[in-house]
């Protein structure tokens, strides 16, 4: 069996997808599985197990070619999304080759939110009328979903949404979560006075409302915003007259740990966040999290967090104020078992 992971990003690029792909590649290789990666990057390159395709105007064609060169008679293409890797994978698939797609986000909804055409959470998005561009992208979704032999979701919440929306056969889908609940700890106030946001600076992350809510609380806590994105210049200008907001930019993983160790808590106000990787990062340092209500976690886990309505500045402000005043804060400890995740994937691959 040869597994070819088709992904949009891979280390040293920083993203939840890049982290996942590196982890599962390593775990599969430890099980003596022939596992290769095809990814996009700034420049074209190739090593023993990773082929990188430059992000040029003809990148999809080059990606298709890179994938096709890796295929053999018992290959399985494991695409990490429906568009950037899913479309080339769907065209590269041929007789005898199986294709699995992993869905951990929604490209179309994210695109519409970030261009200002949508302001509702993902759970409401598919109920709205669609324009010509949206209908075209949905046609691409359906093409890739039809070509796939199996579809893996990060969350049961998105699995059920897609089964309804795209009329997927339930037995063609599975859920493999990124992490599982381990324990819950009530932690005394540590005296730290820094709130940390970690993530892209794009509209769907809802940092605008976070800044406004933080200003409204008139809290002595400093809000540290870690991350990059097209909204950064505008957000910095928006908060230039607020003394207790700091923009740090993108930081290496080891430095992120240092910021988390100094944090009173982490806040995630996203319009929707299906399976945020930063929950695992915060958990590893026993840092509490103030979490959006629009999250793909099971309700059993989600209800353990203090939660805020991302559509309401008042709700975000109340959540911040409650966390700031708390003498104890709840820490939800999560665990990622890469070996267990790899084993679940192999069970799916072997039954195709």
UniProtKB/TrEMBL annotation:
It holds the Pfam family Glyco_trans_4_4. One of its GO terms (molecular function) is glycosyltransferase activity. Transmembrane segments: none annotated. Residues 180-323 form the Glycosyl transferase family domain. InterPro entries: Glyco_trans_1, Glyco_trans_4-like_N, Glycosyltransferase_grp1. Residues 16-178 form the Glycosyltransferase subfamily 4-like N-terminal domain. PANTHER family: SULFOQUINOVOSYL TRANSFERASE SQD2 (PTHR45947). This is Glycosyl transferase family 1 domain-containing protein. The lineage of its organism: Bacteria, Candidatus Buchananiibacteriota.
């Amino acid at each position: 069996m040869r597994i070819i992971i088709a992904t949009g990003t891979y280390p040293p690029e920083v993203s939840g997808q890049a982290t996942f792909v590196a982890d599962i590649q390593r775990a599969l290789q430890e099980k003596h599985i022939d596992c290769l990666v095809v990814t996009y990057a700034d420049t074209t390159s190739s090593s023993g197990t990773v082929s990188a395709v430059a992000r040029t105007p003809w990148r999809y064609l080059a990606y298709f070619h890179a994938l096709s060169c890796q295929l053999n008679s018992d290959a399985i293409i494991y695409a990490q999304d429906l568009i950037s890797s899913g479309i080339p994978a769907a065209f590269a698939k041929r007789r005898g080759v199986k294709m699995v797609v992993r869905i951990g986000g929604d490209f179309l909804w994210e695109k519409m939110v970030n261009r200002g055409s949508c302001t509702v959470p993902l759970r409401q998005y598919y109920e709205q009328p669609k324009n010509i561009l949206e209908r075209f992208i949905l046609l691409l979704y359906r093409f890739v979903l039809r070509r796939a032999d199996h579809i893996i979701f990060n969350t049961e919440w998105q699995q059920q949404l897609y089964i309804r929306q795209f009329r997927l056969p339930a037995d063609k889908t599975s859920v493999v979560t990124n992490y599982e609940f381990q324990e819950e700890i009530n932690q005394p106030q540590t005296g730290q006075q820094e709130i940390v946001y970690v993530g892209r600076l794009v509209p769907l992350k809802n940092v605008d409302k976070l800044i406004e809510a933080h200003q409204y609380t008139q809290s002595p806590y400093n809000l540290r915003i870690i991350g990059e994105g097209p909204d950064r210049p505008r957000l910095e200008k928006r908060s230039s007259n607020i003394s207790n907001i700091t923009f740090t930019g993108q930081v290496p993983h080891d430095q992120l740990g240092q910021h988390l160790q100094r944090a009173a808590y982490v806040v995630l106000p996203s319009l929707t966040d299906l399976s945020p990787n930063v929950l695992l990062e915060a958990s590893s340092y026993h840092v509490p999290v103030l979490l959006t209500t629009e999250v793909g976690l099971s309700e059993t886990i989600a209800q353990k967090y203090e939660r805020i309505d991302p559509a309401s500045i008042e709700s975000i402000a109340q959540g911040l104020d409650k966390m700031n005043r708390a003498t104890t804060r709840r820490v939800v400890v999560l665990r990622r078992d890469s070996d267990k995740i790899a084993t679940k994937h192999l069970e799916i691959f072997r039954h195709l």
